[in-house]
Write a structure and sequence with these properties.
This protein is α+β, with helices and mostly antiparallel strands. The chain is built from 9 helices and 5 strands; from the N terminus they run αααααααβαββαββ. It has helices spanning 2-49, 58-89, 94-122, 127-130, 133-211, 213-230, 241-259, 282-295, 335-348, and strands at 263-268, 302-311, 314-321, 353-358, 364-371. α8 links the parallel β1 (263-268) and β2.
Length: 376
């Protein structure tokens, strides 16, 4: 583990170093290109104002350009090596950065002037002429102006990059905050479902104890068995359809104790579909809603069929009952159904939804349609 962490840090450091070197090389090439263009412009202007040279050949132009580029290129390289460390390692912003860069640019221009002074001295120029204030001032300006312009452009580019990085970081933070808010909302919605189911079941146990103590005790034992299986997995991030089917079967066993022959059911979910991940407790909410609003109010009760199938790139979950259908308090706008719709919208947007329609004879068919998730 320690070796892997060390290697990861080394690779990160190496990648950072490569990126820094590549950035400096791009900056150096840009400076060299600017110096080359300025020297070419100088040769052209010098030829245009020099009346003693009516014509000039391409080789003469190239030779004069190269002589100028050698001197000014070396001076530019020295200035680059002096200015860039200050830009990279100096203050990140504010007046201190501006003042420090101004001082460094002036010093770099003075150093470049000394380099040109030495080159001209080697070429036979008189020391007295080279030390004249006009020569020194002219050469400092010669190097100061382009250096200041290049640093100004580089600083504007740096500020633009920092602004873009800040925008990207803000967007990433906003997306992370939205994701955390969404997860918190989903957890809140799920928490609304679980107590709802438990309170209803406990109320049924109490009612049975008042009318049939044996049935009440049986139902309490089934509830305890259900909780032992269900509670550890209720908070799973990616529950499977198979686990949801087990919860539904355990719930229907509880309700069968209470309703007896008035309740019949079938859970028809193919083994191949049981590994698909689904939002937790949604199917159970539909089943509970079907019993509470559809079957329980009828003297004869009814039947519930739970199924699942693949429809293209979507998963379709169905709960059909033979209860009393629409009417009474079965408006399709209850808390449990509103919870399902809110969770589907939060997780999938418009790609998922819950629909209710009347059954072939009577009752309701509730259908959840959502994008297909990979099997676990």
């Amino acid at each position: 583990m320690a070796d892997r962490q060390t290697n990861a840090r080394f690779r990160t450091l190496l990648d950072g170093l490569r990126a820094a070197v590549a950035g400096e090389m791009r900056a150096l090439v840009f400076v060299a290109a600017v110096v080359g263009l300025l020297m070419l412009l100088r040769q052209v202007v010098q030829f245009a104002v020099d009346n003693s040279t009516p014509t000039i050949t391409l080789s003469e132009l190239a030779s004069g350009w190269w002589e100028d580029f050698e001197v000014h290129g070396v001076a530019a390289l020295v200035m680059f090596c002096l200015i860039q460390p200050v830009r990279r390692l100096g203050p990140s912003g504010g007046a201190r950065r501006i003042v420090l860069l101004a001082v460094v640019v002036v010093l770099a221009a003075a150093l470049a002037t000394l380099i040109r002074f030495y080159v001209l001295l080697l070429g036979g120029e008189e020391v007295r002429m080279l030390w004249s204030p006009v020569f020194v001032g002219t050469n400092i300006v010669r190097f100061l102006v382009p250096a200041a312009l290049l640093v100004t452009v580089a600083e504007f580019n740096r500020r633009e990059i920092i602004s873009l990085e800040a925008m990207r970081a803000a967007e990433a933070d906003r997306s992370a905050l939205e994701q955390e808010t969404l997860q918190a909302r989903l957890k809140t919605l799920e928490a609304q479902i679980e107590p709802h189911f438990l309170f209803n079941t406990l109320a049924n146990v109490r009612r049975l104890y008042e009318t049939d103590a044996v049935a009440g005790e049986t139902m309490l034992q089934l509830l305890m068995r259900y909780l032992v299986v269900a509670l550890p997995s209720m908070r799973d991030e990616l529950p499977t359809l198979g686990r949801e089917a087990q919860l539904i079967e355990a719930y229907l066993e509880l309700q069968h104790v209470r309703m007896g022959r008035r309740l019949s059911y079938r859970v028809d979910i193919a083994p191949a579909l049981r590994g698909i991940t689904v939002p937790s407790m949604m199917l159970l909410t539909l089943v509970e809603n079907a019993i509470k609003h559809g079957l329980a109010p009828l003297r004869e009760g009814g039947r519930i069929d739970i199924g699942a199938r693949i429809d293209g790139d979507h998963l379709q979950l169905e709960v059909a009952d033979t209860g009393r259908g629409f009417g009474g308090d079965s408006s399709g706008m209850g808390t449990g159904l509103a919870n399902i719709r809110a969770r589907l919208t939060a997780m999938f947007g418009d790609a998922a939804g819950l629909t209710l329609m009347s059954g072939p004879a009577r009752g309701l068919l509730a259908t959840i349609r959502m994008p297909l998730r990979p099997a676990s």
